[in-house]
Prior knowledge:
Elements: E1 8-11, H1 17-27, H2 30-34, H3 36-45, E2 48-54, E3 57-66, E4 71-79, H4 88-99, E5 104-107, H5 114-119
Amino acid sequence: MKEQQEIIIRPYEEKDFPAIHKLNEQEGWSNLSAKQEQTKAAWQGSNVAFVAEHDGRLAGCLRALTDGAVSLYICELLIEKNMRGSGIGAKLMDHVHNLYPTTRMELLASATSRSYYEEKKFRPFYGFRKTHQE
């Protein structure tokens, strides 16, 4: 693990979106990048949205939805590539889960992120997805 660095977790602000958009592009999340206005609206409309700052720069972000009692669904968790392994993702997830301690945290993982979540003791479950056009 990389050396622990001071990380500030704070609520998302609209001024953060350009940096989040850049992270989406760098990660190759083409759907979020191509639909920039919809993605920005999603950040504005989510009831859980936080960023992690390091040295005044956005180093990671987490967007989620919750009912506050049972479910806490992580929509996106993204950490700047050169900051991965420093605990930022875990800090963001711990922060939001501490805000809603009675909830179960749920999320989708990609083939490349699966091992990260397994290391954090998430268990797999089966789900479905469908867009309006399908």
